[in-house]
Design goal:
Blueprint (H helix, E strand, L loop, with lengths): L4 H13 L8 E6 L3 H12 L5 E6 L2 H10 L5 E5 L8 H10 L5 E5 L4 H9 L4 E4 L5 H41 L25 E9 L4 E9 L1
Parallel strand pairs: 1-2, 1-3, 3-4, 4-5
Antiparallel strand pairs: 6-7
Helix pairs in contact: 2-6
Length: 222
């Protein structure tokens, strides 16, 4: 029986979809002083489909040190109550030092209000310890990373727009405010960039020679 090359190719494609990806592990930092809770978090991540490289800190100072030393950490799982810090102050201390890192708050059932307050102050999400499971935790971490990326993109776009507006104002200041008055001529000019600002420039210069007053017109295209 002759082999069907089309069928072989289809089987190869199907086999390829089941092969593991070469995506690097997601670097995450767990800030939790409770041994049992730390074991549950690690077990949940190890059981998930995503691959995580989990670091562990047990105090606020330890977390600051690890985040300062490792810029590859993409998300922090944070217990607000630590030996050297408690409550919302824990999140505020870390988020102020590391504003581009997303935080997922790990909270006990009796501390839900503080966790919600942390979210209101910039944390991406919170997960109750009583509901920890691989699906919930990994989904929360992934959403936190994605939301933080969108937030950073929005901030970057705002910075670019502000810089372009400043460049536009500078360009407008460099252009002449009024055309010269020349007997027998109507002089007018306008420079309108295609975007917020451009590199074009024009101006008028009066020059005196021995015999007469002349005007020079200058155009610039950068």
């Amino acid at each position: 029986m002759q082999n069907d090359p089309t069928s072989d190719g289809l089987l190869a494609d199907l086999r390829g979809t089941n092969e593991p990806t070469d995506a690097p592990p997601i670097s995450a930092l767990l800030v939790e002083d409770g041994e049992i809770d730390a074991v549950i978090v690690r077990s949940s991540l190890e059981s998930s489909d995503a691959l995580y490289d989990l670091q562990h800190a047990t105090t606020l100072n330890d977390a600051v040190g690890q985040l300062s030393a490792n810029s590859a950490i993409r998300v922090v799982i944070l217990d607000l109550n630590l030996p050297d810090s408690e409550g919302l102050a824990t999140f505020e201390a870390l988020s102020e030092k590391f504003p581009t890192v997303p935080f997922v708050i790990l909270t006990s059932q009796d501390d839900m209000a503080t966790a919600a307050e942390a979210v209101a102050h910039g944390a991406q999400d919170f997960v109750p310890k009583s509901q920890l499971n691989p699906e919930l935790l990994t989904r929360s971490l992934q959403y936190a990373i994605e939301r933080q990326a969108r937030r950073e993109a929005e901030h970057q776009n705002q910075r670019i727009q502000a810089e372009l507006e400043a460049a536009r104002n500078i360009q407008q200041m460099m252009l002449p405010q009024a055309p010269p008055e020349i007997a027998g001529l109507d002089v007018a000019a306008i420079c309108t960039p295609a975007e917020i600002c451009g590199g074009d420039f024009f101006d008028y210069f009066a020059s005196h020679d021995v015999s007469q007053l002349t005007w020079d017109f200058v155009l610039g295209d950068v």
